[in-house]
Specification:
heterodimer; A: 263 residues; 2 domains; B: 102 residues; two-stranded antiparallel sheet; 4 helices; 77% helix; AzlD domain-containing protein (chain B); membrane (chain B); Brnchd-chn_aa_trnsp_AzlD (chain B); transmembrane helix (chain B); transmembrane (chain B)
């Protein structure tokens, strides 16, 4: 949280020493927006390969617009999960965006009327770019340029991927079914910073695979998610719950920012 | 129809949490335990999803070319390759193993 505290007293204006040229902010934002936006192609292919129609695939990128949730949803539907367990898994993956929004609302200081429109762009990448900026002006530019370029490209490449997958026919023969798990791994890797994260990940893999044959499709993933509170509780008991307020934990809680490093 | 229900529920739910973050006063979700849990939940979900989509076919556990593809992705991540290269490595290696094994 130290970083956030440093940013929240951002009452200084743009003439401050921490100023960064607008062009540099735009360049950083476009770098992230274009690189990640292109991976909408992998989503389009995966979604179409999972049996969703072109319209359903594009609706997901337009309306959900948070990659991991989209991949989780089509994966769960392809595995035969019912719509609500599939949506629950996707929803829980999207909950982290609420915490990004908490930080961004202070940094962006948007008028309340604008917030419902900005909300759709509150995701990993826009947060990472915005948090890296020194002034309110550059935070706003970084968020807007990343959000716009990523949204436009993600939807465009989703469409191309879905159309392409249909043209190709059997996407498995081209190895395209490996794109989904590879995306998850790429999102997961930078989060595995401390022993706690690795224990949670290991327990979730065991639960997710072990329960697969015995529970209905989609449910094992939700049970595996319980690894997080269980490990957290066990850790708290081991060290005494008061320790949860120590700075190390607060720093760990920001691990999601680490995704930026992988891109 | 089932798929549209899932899309609708996911779209509304995911938009609602994004908006919630922008609208609630800071402090409401700032309890350390809540923040910690929010950081750990994606770890658990992504780990379980990665494993399932690699090693599961329906409700049966399988070991096929996707495992080789995922290993390639892991190697690319260790070498700090960009996001698209990681995904590309998984796809190419999976397709290659399938082509070789018939």
């Amino acid at each position: 949280m130290t970083e956030l505290t440093a940013h929240t007293d951002m009452h200084r204006d743009d003439r401050d020493v921490g100023e960064k040229p607008d062009a540099a902010v735009v360049r950083d934002a476009l770098g992230v927006g274009v690189a990640v936006g292109l991976s909408g192609f992998a989503f389009g292919v995966t979604s179409a390969g999972s049996g969703l129609t072109l319209l359903q695939t594009c609706a997901l990128s337009l309306l959900v617009f948070t990659g991991a949730s989209q991949f989780a949803l089509v994966g769960a539907l392809a595995a035969g999960g019912n719509p609500f367990t599939a949506a629950a898994g996707a929803f829980f993956l999207g909950v982290r965006n609420a915490f990004y929004g908490l930080r961004l609302s202070q940094l962006l200081a948007l008028p309340r009327a604008v917030r419902p429109f900005a909300a759709q762009w509150v995701i990993d990448e826009t947060t990472a770019v915005a948090l890296a900026q020194p002034t309110r002006r550059s935070v706003r530019i970084g968020f807007t340029v990343t959000g716009l370029s990523l949204y436009v490209l993600w939807n465009l490449t989703t469409l191309l991927g879905a159309v392409g997958a249909r043209a190709v026919g059997n996407t498995d023969a081209w190895g395209l079914d490996a794109a989904g798990p590879a995306v998850f791994l790429a999102l997961l890797a930078p989060m595995l910073k401390s022993a706690t994260e690795r224990v949670v990940a290991g327990a979730a893999v065991v639960l997710g695979l072990g329960l697969l044959p015995v529970l209905p499709a989609g449910v094992p993933v939700l049970v595996a998610a319980l690894a997080a509170p269980v490990v957290l509780w066990a850790e708290g008991r081991r060290r005494g719950t008061a320790d949860l307020n120590d700075p190390v934990d607060a720093r760990d809680a920001r691990n999601d920012d680490g995704q930026k490093e992988s891109r | 129809m089932n798929i549209w229900i899932a899309i609708g529920v996911t779209a509304v739910g995911c938009y609602a949490v994004k908006l919630l973050g922008l609208l609630v006063p800071a402090g409401v979700l700032e309890r350390p335990v809540v923040r910690r849990l929010a950081a750990l939940m994606p770890v658990a979900l992504l780990a379980a999803l990665t494993a399932q989509q690699t090693f599961a076919d329906g409700r049966v556990l399988v070991l096929d070319a996707k495992a080789a593809g995922l290993a390639a992705a892991a190697l690319a991540l260790l070498l700090r390759a960009p996001f698209l290269v990681v995904v590309g490595a998984a796809v190419v290696v999976t397709a290659g193993v399938r082509a070789v094994m018939g």
